[in-house]
C-alpha cells in the first residue's frame, strides 16, 4: 500500500463520516446521547460547509488532488484501491455533486436547528411516559 492509497482510504473515512452523520443525526437525536455532542456536530458542519463551498467555487477536494498527484503515472492501483476508488469517485458532472452537497448541507442545518429547538423545549431528561407516571403516582398517592 503506497501513500496515495492511504490518502484515498482517509478520504473514504471522511466521506463515510459525513454521509453517515447526515442520516444518524436526525434519526438518533432522541435515541443516542453522542448525536447531541456539540463537538462532533461542529466538525461535521464545518466539513460540510467546506465541501459545499468548494463545489460552489468549482474546486476539487484537496485530498482528491493530493491523491492524483501522488499516483502520477503509476501502473495500476491495488485491488482494494480500485474498489475504494469506484465507491468514492463517481463519473458524474460537478453540478450533480454541487446540488448533492448543497442539499446535504441544507439537511444538516435543518437538523441542527431542530436539535436546538428540542433542547429548549425539553426541560426534563425523563422520557414523557416516565414523567407522566411519576406525576400521576404522586397525585393519587399510589406507587407502582
Task: Report on this structure.
The chain has 144 residues and is mainly α. Helix content is 74%, strand content 0%. It contains six helices and no strands. The termini are far apart.
Q: Characteristics of this structure?
A:
mainly alpha
List the helices and strands and how they pair.
Layout: H1 3-28, H2 38-56, H3 62-71, H4 79-88, H5 94-121, H6 128-140
Helix pairs in contact: 1-3, 1-4, 2-5
Task: Give a brief outline of the structure.
With 144 residues, this protein is mostly helical.
SSE-based structural type: mainly alpha
β-strand percent reads: under 5%
Largest sheet: none
**Chain oligomer state:** single chain
Name the overall outline.
Answer: globular
- Number of continuous helical runs: 6
Amino acid at each position: 500500500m503506497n501513500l496515495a492509497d492511504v490518502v484515498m482510504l482517509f478520504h473514504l473515512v471522511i466521506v463515510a463520516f459525513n454521509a453517515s452523520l447526515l442520516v444518524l443525526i436526525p434519526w438518533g437525536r432522541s435515541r443516542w446521547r453522542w448525536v447531541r455532542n456539540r463537538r462532533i456536530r461542529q466538525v461535521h458542519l464545518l466539513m460540510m460547509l467546506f465541501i459545499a463551498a468548494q463545489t460552489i467555487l468549482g474546486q476539487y477536494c484537496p485530498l482528491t488532488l493530493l491523491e492524483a498527484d501522488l499516483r502520477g503515472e503509476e501502473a495500476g492501483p491495488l485491488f482494494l484501491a480500485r474498489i475504494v476508488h469506484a465507491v468514492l469517485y463517481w463519473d458524474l458532472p460537478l453540478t450533480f455533486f454541487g446540488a448533492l452537497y448543497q442539499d446535504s448541507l441544507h439537511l444538516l442545518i435543518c437538523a441542527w436547528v431542530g436539535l436546538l429547538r428540542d433542547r429548549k423545549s425539553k426541560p426534563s431528561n425523563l422520557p414523557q411516559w416516565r414523567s407522566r407516571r411519576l406525576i400521576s403516582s404522586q397525585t393519587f398517592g399510589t406507587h407502582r
